[in-house]
Amino acid sequence: MLLGLHQVDSGTATLFGRSPGDLEARYGIGVMMQEVTLAVEMTVSQLVALTTSYYPAPMSADDAMALTRTTEFADRAYGKLSAGQKRQVQFTLAVCGRPALLFLDEPTVGLDVQARETLWATIRQLLAQGTSIVLTTHYLEEAEALASRVAVLARGRLVAMATVDDIRGVVSRKRISCLTTLTANEVAAWANVTAATREGARLQIVARDADDVVRRLLAADGTLRDLEVQRAGLAEAFTEITQEAA
What we know:
Order of helices and strands: HEHHHEHEHEEHEHEEHEH
Shape: elongated
Distance between the termini: 25 Å
Radius of gyration: 23 Å
Strand content: 15-25%
Helix content: 25-40%
């Protein structure tokens, strides 16, 4: 709706105080969709130069490619690129117009670890420069790493919106990891333990009251060592919130 691709059924959608269908409003946005079709015979530099021509005050094609680390395949035809390289080019097209508001839909799908870290670094750079970013992702570690505010959708409805810390705060469970002679079955039977499993030599525990479980672990095993306690992550919070909304 904010991109002007769908009409609202009720209420209003505005983009920089204007209708999303207003060309002047759309000059201020950049978009990277999850599924994109581009001219396969055009080179990367040609695609970027063409896209910059749509904006009133864009970056140069060279600057845009330098920002997104795509210069190395600037002269290659888009159709000859790998899936991950195509995603990097699509990101370049999204940012080349110096958007005040950037929409990224599953931006790191198909990227290897190094390319994902590069894209994350560029996103942080754009945020530091004042760009607002709406990012849609199923990779919760991505939202945890990048977002200042998280919105959780379930069954087409907004069920939570807050900072990452506040979203994580709805979950009282914590993760405990340690080296111990105690068995997973033994610990799983304790009060306040939601789950206990072995991962190699380590015992992994999910607990509702971590302090109580840690005290019991120390009392039960005098040789216990390498103890770690972590708060619940965004994944656990997402699961709990969406289950409650079901």
